[in-house]
Design a protein that fits this description.
This is Carbohydrate ABC transporter permease. Helix content is 69%, strand content 0%. It is mainly α and 299 residues long.
Length: 299
């Protein structure tokens, strides 16, 4: 018998090999199916507009050009709208996650006055809202209409996100905070130094939710903002697409094919809007699933 370490290789049966191979094939096909819409979107943005309009682009770009991107980036006031959108996303996300998590933290404290009443009062707002007209009048009386803060303050706290964070905090061992309390730490100190560092998965998940919501929103601008200097990129591109569709509808068939394609423009606008926010996802993806599972354990 040979001395030294003997390496034992696990014997894999033929049936297991077949199952493994089938699994690789199935998941590879599924991955390609998930990626294909993004690939198709990108090849349509650089393909001939007439071919895109008539659905003749399948797997490869044809008549490659970058005029659609040139046209989009030459839109008047685009750079200012990008600045407003980025600023709104950053400020809104920080304020939203901070306020929502702090509110969730206090709802975990039994010593909070009227905790059950206020918690149920907040949950009710998930099912009943005042409606658009009362909301508009309220924001106008508060002086928020046609200001940058209309993007931040009204949606600063999300009850749904608050419930997820509250559930995650309640899963923490109470002894962690008790030891800090005995050392003289107050609510704010415990929240900042103990609770938040241990809530990275759920906070990363909520951050993604809030950031995507701010980035994609154009309805707030449409209803509450009339100052062009406060237009977001999504609203500006939404208006551009509507104007193009109106102009194309008034053209003849030959002029329409030669001039512009609403389908190609729509694809380009979609790419311009979704690519930046997609670049953020890989950095917090590792927290995403764990955060959702933690927040879904109990309510």
């Amino acid at each position: 018998m040979k001395t030294g370490q003997t390496k034992h290789k696990k014997q894999i049966s033929t049936g297991e090999k077949i199952i493994n191979a089938a699994s690789y094939v199935i998941f590879t096909v599924f991955t390609l199916l998930c990626l294909f819409p993004f690939y198709y979107l990108m090849i349509c943005t650089i393909s001939d507009n007439a071919l895109v309009e008539y659905g003749q682009i399948t797997f490869w770009p044809r008549g490659i050009h970058f005029d659609n991107y040139v046209d989009v980036f030459q839109v008047q006031n685009l750079m200012n709208s990008v600045k407003i959108t980025v600023l709104r996303t950053i400020v809104g996300t920080v304020a939203g996650v901070g306020a929502t998590s702090y509110m969730a933290y206090f709802f975990t404290k039994t010593e909070m006055w009227g905790r059950k009443f206020w918690y149920r009062f907040c949950v009710i707002t998930m099912y009943f809202s005042s409606g658009l007209i009362p909301s508009y009048l309220t924001n106008r009386m508060l002086g928020l209409n046609n200001t940058f803060w209309i993007y931040i303050i009204p949606g600063c706290i999300s009850v749904y996100n608050m419930i997820l964070i509250k559930t995650s905090i309640e899963a923490m061992p109470p002894s962690l905070e008790e030891s800090a309390y005995l050392d003289g730490a107050g609510f704010l100190t415990r929240y900042l130094r103990i609770v938040l560092p241990l809530q990275k998965p759920i906070l990363a998940t909520i951050t993604l939710f809030v950031a995507v919501s701010h980035w994609n929103d154009f309805f707030t601008t449409k209803i509450y903002v009339t100052n062009p200097k406060l237009y977001t990129m999504q609203f500006l591109l939404y208006e551009l697409l509507n104007n193009i569709q109106t102009a194309v509808g008034q053209m003849g068939t030959e002029d329409r094919d030669a001039y512009i394609s609403p389908a190609g423009t729509r694809m380009t606008l979609t790419a311009v809007v979704i690519i930046p926010i997609m670049c953020v996802y890989p950095f917090i993806q590792k927290y995403f699933v764990k955060g959702i599972m933690i927040g879904a354990v109990k309510g």
